[in-house]
Amino acid sequence: QVQLVESGGGSVQPGGSLRLSCVTSGFSSAYYAIGWFRQAPGKRRQGVSCMIRNENGAHYDDSVKGRFTMSRDNPKNTVYLQMNNLKPEDTAVYYCATVQSKYPCLDSYGMDYWGNGTLVTVSS
User: Fold this and answer.
1) Beta-carbon contacts of residue 111 (< 8 Å; ≥ 6 apart)
2) CA angle 92, 93, 99 (to 5 degrees)
């Protein structure tokens, strides 16, 4: 049974930092890509960052470039999202998700498995 479990959300002031974690388990075959997505109240789910398994580096939405960094620890089956210089507009529930087949990894509609999310609130 595939599981993705996010943690690390919380409340911070503008300019603050948080690090999110996503632990994955239960995959019978390797996923193609893993990504971080977010959904603010009343808004569509948005791709934030993603990594393709056999590639180095990560892809980012323009809204977070230079502030967020995605990384992975393969032995721990964990991916991270380091979020710096947080802004009120970053407030959302953050999810990690995976896709098994080749697909644009910042596009939420094609993702196969999702975690339950972790809430990030940025407010003064």
Assistant:
1) 35, 37, 97, 98, 99, 103
2) 120
- Are 88 and 122 a contacting pair, CB within 8 Å? yes
The secondary structure of the chain, three-state, reads CCEEEEECCEEECCCCCEEEEEEEECCCCCCCEEEEEEECCCCCCEEEEEEECCCCCCEECCCCCCCEEEEEEHHHCEEEEEECCCCHHHCEEEEEEEECCCCCCCCHHHCCEECCCEEEEECC
Q: Which amino acid is located at 54 in the chain?
A: N
In sequence order, what are the residues at sequence separation of 6 or more whose Cβ sits closer than 8 angstroms to the Cβ of residue 79? 21, 22, 24, 34, 36, 51, 70, 71, 72, 73, 96
Q: How far apart are CA 36 and CA 118, in angstroms?
A: 11
Report pLDDT digits (tens) over 57-88.
999 999 999 999 999 999 999 999 999 999 99
